[in-house]
Amino acid sequence: MAEEKEITAADLNAQDATLLRDLEDAMANCMKCGNCQAVCPIYRETRQENMVARGKISLMQGVLSGKIPVSANFDHIMAMCLNCKSCAANCPCGVEADELILRGRNASVKARGLHPIKKNVFRLLANRSLFDAALKLGGMFGWMTFKEVPGKNAVKSRLPMPGMDPERATPPLAAKPLRSQYPEVIKCDNPKYRVAFFTGCTINYMYTDMGKAVIDVLHANDVEVVLPPKQHCCGTPVHVSGEFDLANEMAKNMIEVFENLDVDYIVGACGSCVEALKHYPVWLKDDPEWKARAEKMAAKVREISELLMERGYRTDILGPVNKKVTMHDPCHMVRGLGITKEPRDVLKSIPGLEFIEMKEHDRCCGSGGSFCMAHYEMSREINDRKCSNIDATHADFVATSCPSCRMHITDGIIHNKMPQVVYHPIQLLAQSYYAGGYKA
Ligand code: SF4
Ligand code: SF4
Hints:
Blueprint: H1 9-19, H2 24-28, H3 35-39, H4 41-46, H5 53-64, H6 72-79, H7 86-89, H8 97-112, H9 116-126, H10 128-145, E1 146-149, E2 154-157, E3 169-170, E4 185-186, E5 193-198, H11 200-205, H12 208-220, E6 223-226, H13 236-240, H14 244-258, E7 265-268, H15 271-283, H16 288-298, E8 301-303, H17 304-311, E9 324-327, H18 331-337, H19 341-348, E10 354-355, H20 371-374, H21 376-391, E11 397-399, H22 403-415, E12 421-423, H23 425-435
Parallel strand pairs: 5-6, 5-7, 7-8, 9-10, 9-11, 11-12
Antiparallel strand pairs: 1-2, 2-3, 4-6
Helix pairs in contact: 5-8, 6-8, 12-23, 15-16, 15-18, 17-19, 19-23, 21-22
The site of one iron/sulfur cluster has 14 residues, from helix 3 and helix 5.
């Protein structure tokens, strides 16, 4: 009878190593030059080598060699990243460290499972009807739990909330979600073209003012807008947590909702959502049939300012907005999509609006999706630097094309007792249309 082989720690480590085997060549391209250290917001706060991309790659190489296990410490170090992509953008060797770190998170999910809180949150997020019911209920009774921060479109909790710093300001949940405020098709008389609006969760349930601005601007430009009712989360929060299997299922659901619509474009106003929709072919690269369907859909996807610059927009009804504005570039817009000029061109076309560029306009604000919930103190310190750059411009408004950045920068502005209000650039264009006489 064959002797049963005892499983050793080395065997377990070797199993972990197989999770990263296909990254061997990509990681070997890192020559450990340290360029990524100079631009990493997490390193600036912690000064710890294992927090920077180079340190994380070394750690993953340790796992790959079977010397280091995928442990709680590995999990923690991989989690300490904003996915801001600054390391990749500044790497002389073309190492996509941000993507490698997501693979590290994926290895951790596979070896150790998801944290129970995340598991439950993602279960809720993946269930469209349940998620919708929960957020609608929250919107109806939010006034009991939250108090308003005047003039900032923000609230603070009256009661201690699990996992949330009591000082944190967030956007209010909408009493009525955006998609419940409109018919499925917002018609116009002689449409120039048709778009499907991917609202994303934050715009649908919280920042409905951003969604209204998108719809009004498109309508003012004779564009018919379709709001597919079965759309849901794009899957970004799940993907960046390393739970690729579930994120891919969510991507497939969205492809099924959007692929056969009779529209010329699929438009979004959140840089992270738009990046996800455009990158579904990469998420689904191992499944040829779904990859092809994702590519077909992705070809129609545009960020709203990208669409306006491509197709043109009415300038004859622009009215004055006599304010100073500065702009924060969300990481997923600037380094994910490479879109920086289009929102600026939109802003600069508005009469009366004085545009002032801030220092480090493309540096991460510290939000990092759920990072700012889990590591609030650190994300606030990163945000303080952003706020001080905003303050130096003496602007009235901050424009940014991402609802998460809007949320986080608003929190920083409130904490730092600053006068600015944060908007999406499309809201300032809508304001200009209203000032010019356009009636929604
Ligand atoms: S900049 Fe690129 S090559 Fe240099 S240490 Fe960082 S990841 Fe490695
Ligand atoms: S993605 Fe950003 S936070 Fe993460 S390691 Fe790279 S530079 Fe640091």
